[in-house]
Automatic annotation (TrEMBL):
Gene3D superfamilies: NAD(P)-binding Rossmann-like Domain. Residues 107-285 form the D-isomer specific 2-hydroxyacid dehydrogenase NAD-binding domain. This is D-glycerate dehydrogenase. The keyword NAD applies. Keywords: NAD, Oxidoreductase. One of its GO terms (cellular component) is cytosol. CDD domains: GDH (cd05301). InterPro entries: D-isomer_2-hydroxyacid_DH (IPR050223), D-isomer_2_OHA_DH_cat_dom (IPR006139), D-isomer_DH_CS (IPR029753), D-isomer_DH_NAD-bd (IPR006140), NAD(P)-bd_dom_sf (IPR036291). Residues 4-316 form the D-isomer specific 2-hydroxyacid dehydrogenase catalytic domain. The keyword GTP-binding does not apply. It comes from Aurantiacibacter rhizosphaerae. One of its GO terms (molecular function) is glyoxylate reductase (NADPH) activity. It comes from the Bacteria.
């Protein structure tokens, strides 16, 4: 069984794959073109892409050999699931293993935005710091502030746990319905997104990408946010209207934002690049050695199950 791994994976995972299967690795780690991805559909039994690959209808139509798309990552909005299903191609992802790493990064962004850490480091590195003074880079404390969690799945809950137990934040959340896990956090369920946004000092996004959540945080939603609040996104870039966010940051309606994901990575919305009150990270949510290896091993488990004709551990359709 032939497998194409579209980007470099951790060494231990590449070795494990190569020991079991006929694997082609992307040694240069250069993103493949849409044409190359389409050709791979006719040359390999398994395509193992990442979020940096756009597996659209044209790619999927490129050939008939591939019967499994084993995605390296939990998000799969870069894959046309309907087109894959129509051709009888299974799609899997790697859920669960990146919960802690992503929640840690969400707290990193909350702290950086609240304490203006990005601004401070840029000032210091530019040689512009004139020394300590009482009014310099005043930020916000976290204790007793309300963290509004949009989407209360594994990562949203892990973020809330860290914020509540580690920093004394109050938790509110918006989800399809109340969650039993909220009781341990004394978390308040908000049945509507505007209600959550209006009462939150910090809003952290933890919803999947896709049509249902595209531009969920748009001009109207941003206007509903509490003046002086902060927006954090470690979910998917398409969840936020970044032009509207830039306006909210420029006007001072929002005190700050922290983003790890963008709609057309690696491009970052131009409107945000010149703003001091937004922290911009290069999609580091799962970037710990432990997590990235675990993601690869989870993808490998799906490939092995497919090779044996066994039920797939992590099907997405």
């Amino acid at each position: 069984m032939r497998i194409l791994v579209t980007r470099r994976w951790p060494d231990a995972v590449e070795r494990a794959l190569s020991e079991r299967f006929d694997v082609v690795l992307n040694e240069s780690d250069t993103p493949l073109s849409q044409t190359e991805l389409g050709e791979a559909m006719g040359a390999f039994d398994v395509l193992a892409p990442t979020v940096s690959d756009r597996i659209d209808t044209e790619v999927i139509a490129g050939g008939d050999r591939c019967k499994l798309i084993a995605n390296y990552g939990v998000g799969f909005d870069h894959i046309d699931i309907a087109a894959a299903s129509a051709k009888g191609i299974a799609v899997t992802n790697t859920p669960g293993v990146l919960t802690d790493a992503t929640a840690d990064l969400a707290l990193t962004l909350i702290l950086m935005a609240a304490r203006r850490a990005g601004e401070g480091e840029r000032e210091l590195r530019a040689g512009e710091w004139s020394g300590w003074r009482p009014t310099h880079l005043i930020g916000s404390a976290l204790k007793d502030k309300v963290l509004g969690v949009v989407g209360f799945g594994r990562i949203g809950q892990a973020t809330a746990q860290r914020a509540h137990h580690g920093f004394g934040m109050k938790i509110a959340y918006f989800a399809r319905g109340p969650k039993d896990e909220a009781a341990a956090l004394d978390a308040e369920f908000c049945p509507s997104l505007p209600d959550l946004l209006a009462k939150s000092d910090f809003v952290s996004l933890h919803v999947p990408g896709g049509d249902d959540t595209a531009n969920l945080i748009d001009t109207k939603a941003l206007s509903a946010m509490k003046p002086g609040s902060y927006l954090i996104n470690t979910a998917r870039g398409g969840v936020v209207d970044h032009d509207a966010l830039a306006q909210a940051l420029k006007s001072g309606h929002l005190a700050g934002a922290g983003l790890d994901v963008y709609p057309q990575e690696p491009q970052v919305p131009e409107a945000l690049l010149g703003l001091e009150n937004v922290v911009l990270l290069p999609h580091l949510g799962s970037a710990t050695a432990e997590t990235r290896e675990a993601m690869g091993m989870r993808a490998l488990a799906n490939i092995e199950a497919f090779a044996k004709g066994e039920p797939l551990p992590d099907p997405v359709q």
